[in-house]
Design a protein that fits this description.
The protein is built from eight helices and no strands. 67% of the residues lie in helices and 0% in strands. By secondary structure, it is mostly helical. 23% of the residues are buried. The chain folds into two domains: 1-84, Rna Polymerase Sigma Factor, Chain: A; 104-181, Winged helix-like DNA-binding domain superfamily/Winged helix DNA-binding domain (Arc Repressor Mutant, subunit A). Helix 2 (9-31) crosses helix 4. The longest helix has 23 residues, at 9-31.
C-alpha cells in the first residue's frame, strides 16, 4: 500500500490481483447480478486508486471492502430508481467448472437448487440485512470489521444479522428439505 500511495501503479495492480475475487464475491451476493457486480468492483478499484493517498492504515481488505460495499449500494440505489425485470432465461451457468467424475448428480442438483433458493431469498430481505449476512456468514468478516465497513454500531450489525437470518428462515420455510443434509 505504501508503494501504491506513492503512485506506483504496478504495486496497486498487485493489490487488485490479490483482492479482486474477494470483492467480487462480496458484491455479487449483495447486488445479485454478476454484470452489475463486475462493474461495481471495477468502480471500487478505480475509486481506491484515485483515493489511495487517503488510506490511513489498518487492513487493506477492510478498506477495499468498504469501498466495494459503497459501490454495491450505488448499484442498489440506481436499481430502485429504475427497476428492471431480470431475464432468467438469459442466465448462463457455463462459467462454473464442469462436475468431476466423482460428483453425485443428485447432490449437485440439490446444491444448485439450494444456492438459487438462498440467492432469491437474500434478494427479498433489506439491503442492510443482506450486506451484513454476506459479510459475516459468507465472507467471514467479524462483527467489529463489519461495523467499521458499514459505518454502524456493533449492536446494529448483530441486530441486522439476527433479523436477516429470521427473515431468511421465514422465506425459506417451504424449502427446508433443500437445506437438510
Amino acid at each position: 500500500m505504501a508503494r501504491a500511495a506513492a503512485g506506483d501503479l504496478a504495486a496497486f495492480n498487485e493489490i487488485v490481483v490479490a483482492y479482486q475475487d474477494l470483492l467480487f464475491a462480496v458484491v455479487v451476493r449483495v447486488v445479485g447480478d454478476r454484470e452489475a457486480a463486475a462493474d461495481a468492483v471495477q468502480d471500487a478499484f478505480l475509486h481506491a486508486w484515485r483515493n489511495v493517498r487517503s488510506y490511513r492504515g489498518g487492513l487493506v481488505r477492510g478498506w477495499l471492502a468498504r469501498i466495494a460495499l459503497n459501490a454495491a449500494t450505488d448499484v442498489l440505489r440506481r436499481r430502485k430508481r429504475r427497476p428492471s425485470e431480470p431475464y432468467p432465461e438469459w442466465e448462463d451457468d457455463a462459467w462454473q467448472p464442469p462436475s468431476g467424475p466423482t460428483t453425485d448428480p443428485e447432490h449437485e442438483v440439490t446444491r444448485r437448487a439450494r444456492g438459487r433458493a438462498l440467492a432469491a431469498a437474500l434478494l427479498t430481505i433489506t439491503d442492510e440485512q443482506r450486506r451484513a449476512i454476506v459479510l459475516y456468514d459468507v465472507e467471514g468478516f467479524d462483527y467489529p470489521e463489519i461495523a467499521r465497513m458499514t459505518g454502524v454500531s456493533l449492536g446494529t450489525v448483530k441486530s441486522r444479522i439476527h433479523r436477516g437470518r429470521l427473515a431468511l428462515r421465514d422465506r425459506l420455510a417451504d424449502q427446508l428439505e433443500l437445506f437438510r443434509d
